[in-house]
From TrEMBL:
Post-translational modification: Topaquinone (TPQ) is generated by copper-dependent autoxidation of a specific tyrosyl residue.
Oxidoreductase listed as a keyword: yes
Organism: Senna tora
Domain Copper amine oxidase catalytic: 133-547
Lineage, opening ranks: Eukaryota, Viridiplantae, Streptophyta, Embryophyta, Tracheophyta
Molecular function per GO: copper ion binding; primary methylamine oxidase activity; quinone binding
Active site: D210 (proton acceptor), Y298 (schiff-base intermediate with substrate)
Keywords linked to the UniProt accession: Copper, Disulfide bond, Metal-binding, Oxidoreductase, TPQ
GO BP field: amine metabolic process
A Pfam family assignment: Cu_amine_oxidN3
Family affiliation: Belongs to the copper/topaquinone oxidase family.
Cofactor: Cu cation
Residue ranges of domain Copper amine oxidase N3-terminal in the record: 22-105
Name of the molecule in the record: Amine oxidase
Cross-referenced InterPro entries: Cu_Am_Ox_Cu-bd (IPR049947), Cu_Am_ox_TPQ-bd (IPR049948), Cu_amine_oxidase (IPR000269), Cu_amine_oxidase_C (IPR015798), Cu_amine_oxidase_C_sf (IPR036460), Cu_amine_oxidase_N-reg (IPR016182), Cu_amine_oxidase_N3 (IPR015802)
Length: 820
């Protein structure tokens, strides 16, 4: 049935008469799994194995097609199969139509199969230190609806119940041309084929089509902040229609984050110029779109990674739990016959199997009309004695005219050195066709016989690369209806038409493959196994597109161990009529919190720094006592640099910029903006960093009420993504106790709206100002007179997924205000 949503009308209805069935729904699978528990033969089989029904879980498997005529104690449940029991369910009638209890083998032990952290027992491996990717100015990407903009990239993130993530309209900004240029119209995982290598009765039919039968989107897992995705990630939910038409919600189905793993985007050191050493380096930061699909026992981590260079890396990670079978063996010496797998635990065999993911890539390289070019590397002999060399290789290019010309099996004696999709109608200034190159990744091929029934249905894995003309009805490599299909509506069948593909709107199909030979390290839960491939611009730009990428702002973390010679710091400054001078021998700086607020130290790496520019932002008001304490000890490893300081060596630093002699620029921003405005209402605005706040502001707010004194000590140690916090008390004084509730923001930005009982503005910005009446000073103390009774902040609120709630007790008295 085809429905026009704009007119709310049915356009057409058609009954499919071919082979195959639609994707299983979750409702069907749940109902089928409940049937055995009311089926007498199954209950009897469970009892004779010494088990109770409450100890048994049933799983659903597709039965495939094998030439027959059509007929109508641990969380690790996969690790303990009841080998030999099989039930066949008719999903239309929702009834059991077949049952077999062929053999009773020893039940694998539960011991050693648990993977939940709370259930594991010592000894444990050494603990790793936490790793954070710090972005003091906030993420560099923006999400509007489902359109993502980042650096020079713009693309749309879509969700499909079958394919999972769909990336569409991916375009890259060309600085030279001053325009966005299209690269990819649509990309997705079209099908995933997972055949097991066990031909016995209970296993022969295990040859899954995870996309077409179960749905990568339908099986999408809600991603866990800080574990599935880093702290700087933003999240997007997904929705799809259930079997009854009601919308189902998948929270955090996608995460989007900037990734930096210490890699280098480009670099060069030049030593040939006399008396000069030139080094230029740019870090390789990329943007990742991630979804995890849990199809039964396996978890598939599907990543699309966009790089400033114009490359797109498509990757998949395999983890989760092996599909195992029971056996009588506890040692490999006992094995005399073929077991079709690896003995990975007592009475437990991990069965050999494959994973093949076929990607659908509708590339529009600078336009729809594209061609597929195979460039072979061929050895040429030097026979005319014109050179001491005897041979060299050269390129021999061939443009595929038809679909048959573009079928390629990589690594099987094939010659192609390069696979290119080019736009023959667009050229660079030097005359090269603009294009993108396919860099192959994992090169595992299906080893099943071509006439084996699973391989007939999965004939799209016969080749690693296919190219077809665009056809809106041909998106699913295994056919529109994959369940129990017979291989008569697959990519391999369409390709037999041998249509023309030169200078056409074409689609590239690329298959990533794994041969999985299980090992003991894969049990009880397997470490992630990853593979993928890359799309990389080739003569698409006039020159290196990241040549003019500005060096980023470097943030020196507290865990860097500096290797610096001791140097002298001269700190000079004044507050009112007082001046101080401090000399310190130093090695580095760190970041810490204490009872007085934020204490900042900065570690600087062993760069040869020859200049320092400091912009301090320490403030004092004549009518208030104000002390701002940040750098209690000024650990800056540079000689004779001028700082502004307050009494007792107290100094505030908002911006530090270091330019090194080797061209390295270090810029540290602690707070993006701090401004104290003396107006009629004396408002303090503190704008927090636009980004993940690792050490947020910690104002210690003191003021006096008319007729009484009150000290309020707030947010001593505010860290995002953790809740709740119990507020601390001021030493020697009675202060309020409040409650703070934190939830992560989808943008990784601390957004605060402060509601006050009177006359104070409500703020709404990405990094919102905190507005508090009267003389309220972060990082220190202040006193003033309150014009009326205290009715302080009763609620913090926020947009963007961040929520604060603070309850404050009014009129709490203190006998004095601490002074320094």
């Amino acid at each position: 049935m085809t429905v026009d949503l704009s007119t709310h009308s049915i356009i057409s209805t058609k009954v499919y008469e071919g082979h195959g069935f639609p994707m299983f729904t979750n409702d069907e699978q749940v109902q089928a799994m409940e049937l055995p528990f009311n089926y007498a033969p199954f209950i009897e089989s469970v009892k004779k194995r010494g088990l109770n029904l409450c100890e048994v879980v049933c799983s659903t498997f597709s039965v495939g097609w094998f030439g027959q005529p059509h007929t109508n104690g641990t969380a690790n449940l996969y690790a303990r199969p009841l080998q030999g029991i099989t039930l066949e369910v008719d999903l239309d009638e929702m009834s059991i139509v077949g049952y077999s209890d062929r053999a009773m083998l020893p039940l694998p032990k539960a011991e050693g199969t648990e993977y939940r952290a709370s259930k594991l027992n010592p000894p444990f491996t050494p603990k790793f230190q936490g790793i954070a990717f710090h972005q003091p100015h906030g993420p560099a990407f923006h999400i509007h609806a489902h359109t993502v903009s980042w650096g020079n990239w713009e693309f749309h993130v879509g969700f499909d119940v079958r394919a999972g993530p769909i990336i569409s309209l991916a375009s890259i900004y060309d600085v030279e041309k001053q325009e966005y240029r299209r690269v990819l119209y649509r990309g997705m995982v079209s099908e995933m084929f997972v055949p097991y290598m066990e031909p016995t009765e209970e296993w022969y039919y295990l040859s899954f089509f995870d996309s077409g039968e179960f749905g990568l989107g339908q099986c999408a897992s809600s991603l866990q902040p800080l574990t599935d995705c880093p702290q700087n990630a933003a999240f997007i939910d997904a929705f799809y229609a259930a079997s009854d038409g009601t919308p189902l919600h998948i929270p955090n189905a996608f995460c989007i984050f900037e990734k930096y793993a210490g890699d280098v985007m480009w670099r060069h050191t030049e030593t040939a110029i006399p008396d000069q050493l030139i080094t230029e380096v740019r870090p390789d930061v990329s943007l990742v779109v991630r979804m995890v699909s849990t199809v039964g026992n396996y978890d598939y981590i599907i990543d699309w990674e966009f790089k400033p260079s114009g490359s797109i890396k498509l990757g998949v990670g395999l983890t989760g739990i092996l599909e195992v079978k029971g056996g009588t063996y506890t040692h490999t010496d006992q094995i005399k016959d073929e077991i079709y797998g690896t003995l990975i635990a007592d009475n437990t065999i991990g069965v050999y199997h494959d994973h093949f993911l076929t990607y659908y890539l509708d590339l529009d390289i600078d336009g729809e009309a594209n061609s597929f070019v195979k460039t072979n590397l061929e050895t040429t002999r030097v026979t005319d004695h014109s050179s001491p060399r005897k041979s060299y290789w050269k390129l021999v290019s061939e443009t595929a005219k038809t679909e048959a010309d573009a079928r390629i099996n990589l690594g099987r004696g094939s010659k192609p050195g390069e696979l290119l999709v080019v736009n023959p109608n667009k050229k660079t200034k030097l005359g090269n066709n603009v294009g993108y190159r396919i860099f192959p990744g994992s090169l595992s091929h299906s080893l099943l016989a071509k006439n084996d029934y699973p391989q007939i249905r999965a004939a799209f894995t016969n080749y690693d690369v296919w190219v077809t003309p665009y056809n809106r009805s041909q998106k699913w490599a295994g056919g529109l209806y994959a369940d129990r299909s017979r291989g008569d509506d697959t990519l391999a069948v369409w390709n037999l038409r041998n249509r023309e593909i030169e200078n056409k709107d074409i689609v590239v199909w690329y298959t990533v493959g794994f041969h999985h030979v299980p090992s003991q390290e894969d049990f009880p839960v397997m470490p992630t196994l990853s593979a993928g491939f890359e799309l990389r611009p080739t003569n698409f730009f006039e020159s290196n597109p990241v040549l003019k990428v500005k060096p980023p702002t470097y943030i020196i973390s507290s865990n860097i161990t500096p290797k610096l010679k001791t140097s002298t710091l001269a700190v000079t400054g004044a507050l009112l009529s007082h001046s101080v001078r401090i000399n310190q021998h130093v090695l580095g700086l760190d970041i810490a919190m204490d009872d007085l607020g934020l204490t900042l130290f900065m570690q600087v790496n062993s760069w040869n720094v020859n200049s320092l520019k400091l912009i301090p932002m320490a403030l004092a008001l004549r009518n208030f006592f104000l002390l701002i304490r940040t750098l209690s000890i000024a650990f800056i490893p540079f000689e004779e640099k001028l700082f502004r300081a307050f009494t007792n060596g107290i100094l505030f630093l908002a911006h530090l910029e270091v330019v090194a002699s080797k061209g390295i620029k270090l810029e540290i921003r602690i707070i993006k903006h701090l401004q104290l405005e003396v107006q009629k209402r004396r408002l303090l605005y503190t704008v927090i960093n636009q980004g993940d706040v690792h050490m947020a502001f910690s104002p210690q707010i003191a003021f006096t009420l008319q007729g009484s004194s009150t000290i309020v000590h707030t947010l001593v140690h505010l860290l995002p993504f953790r809740a709740p916090f119990l507020f601390k008390t001021w030493p020697g004084s009675i202060v309020f106790v409040g409650e703070l509730k934190l939830c992560h923001t989808t943008r990784g930005v601390v957004s605060i709206i402060t509601k006050l009982p009177s006359s104070c503005m409500e703020a709404e910005l990405a990094a919102s100002p905190l507005c508090i009446e009267k003389a309220v000073v972060p990082f220190g103390y202040a006193t003033t007179r309150w014009p009326s009774e205290l009715s302080w902040i009763s609620e913090f609120g926020s947009t963007g997924g961040f929520w604060y709630q603070t309850r404050v007790l009014s009129g709490i008295l203190a006998n004095h205000i601490p002074t320094r």
